[in-house]
Amino acid sequence: MADEDRVFLITGASSGIGAATALAAAQAGYRVVLAARSLDKLEALAAELGEERALAVTCDVTDWSAQEAMVAAALDRFGRLDVAFANAGFGATRGFLADTPEHWREMVLTNVLGAAYTIRATLPALKETTGHIVLTGSVAGRRAIAGSLYSSTKWAVTGMGESLRQDLDATGMRVTVVEPGQVETPFFDNPGEGRLEAVDVARAVMYAVSQPPHVDVNEILIRPTAQEG
Fold first, then answer.
1. Are 10 and 21 in contact (CB under 8 A)?
2. Tens digit of pLDDT for each residue in 132-180?
3. How many C-beta atoms surround the C-beta of residue 192 within 10 A?
4. By C-alpha distance, which of 40, 7, 46 is closest to 25?
5. pLDDT tens for residues 65-99?
6. Where do the H-state alpha helices sit in 28-113?
7. What positions carry a catalytic annotation?
8. How many beta carbons lie within 10 A of that of residue 53, not counting itself?
9. CA torsion angle 61 64 65 70 (round to 10)
10. 108-137 core/surface letters (b: 16 or more CB in 10 A; e: else)
11. Which of 13, 137, 157, 209 lies at a 20 to 30 A Cα distance from 111?
12. Where are the beta strands (DSSP E) in 19-167?
């Protein structure tokens, strides 16, 4: 691998925003580390990107040892990390009597603890390259939504991003929280009109990471034109 080849790690990379960002990062010249629980989808995406440029790693982000193994595999294969995109997450039905406590628990662990684990697991390697951490937030993390525990998890991610930015002050590292509105991804069970496409969010991520080193785009709030809230 050429010394100048940068490495972009993405959790939740098997579909939606994660997969779209992997394609965009590869097109921008990054080597990519694709992490998710669905290894078959990851391997198909890695084959599309080219096995010399992509590494597929099974990772449940709620499992700290799996996150450690993910980073170890990335460093063993590519020798460095430059960008970590903590993107894994999912939602729940609105209403505090909807869905199950088990679903809630898995969502909170994935959306909040999983993102924190990704930060902790990748941070030592990213400090070596003065790297960039990107978190997938949401419009739902900027305003309260009736009956939405998912919204609460994304409020946590918004706060986590700012806490991390302050923690890394003066290191040269950068932190971005990307906060999409409604996106046409597997997150939704039914197709809809007027939503963002995953590639729209991927472009926002790549905009943030492509800025010169002295520019840190801390938050990108991106809605479809037709979204009211």
1. yes
2. 999 999 999 998 899 999 999 999 999 999 999 999 999 999 999 999 9
3. 11
4. 7
5. 999 999 999 999 999 999 999 999 999 999 999 99
6. 39-49, 64-78, 101-108
7. 150
8. 17
9. 40
10. bbbbbebbbbbbebbbebbeeeebbbbbbb
11. 209
12. 31-36, 54-58, 83-86, 132-136
Residue 228 confidence class, pLDDT cut points 50, 70, 90: low
> pTM of the full predicted structure?
0.92
Residues 6+ apart with CB under 8 A from 27: none
Q: What is the CATH number of domain 7-222?
A: 3.40.50.720
> Who wins on pLDDT, 178 or 194?
178
Domain ranges in the chain are 7-222
Give the position of tokens 């729940």.
92
Tokens in use for 115?
């993102």
The tokens describing 102, both together, are 């088990």
Report which secondary-structure segment, H or E, holds 183: strand 183-184
Helices vs. strands in the chain: H and E counts, helices first? 7, 9
